[in-house]
From TrEMBL:
It comes from the Bacteria. This is DUF6435 family protein. It comes from Halomonas rhizosphaerae. Pfam families: DUF6435. InterPro entries: DUF6435 (IPR045493).
């Protein structure tokens, strides 16, 4: 009953993941491949966290 109002952490992580991917895409368009690589790496770390939450 009290779980009804509990926030879902995977939704917050999913939103952060999508933002990181968008930032990486914009960095690639601007020619900043180093920023693209680091943002993509951060996005993949978020994706792994999302997968862990879904598995449990």
């Amino acid at each position: 009953m009290f779980g009804l109002f509990k926030s879902d952490p995977s939704k917050k992580l999913q939103k952060a993941y999508e933002q990181k991917l968008e930032q990486a895409m914009l960095a690639a368009r601007n020619g900043d491949m180093r920023a693209n690589a680091s943002l993509t790496e951060e996005a993949e770390a978020l994706r792994e966290e999302i997968e862990k939450l879904k598995a449990s």
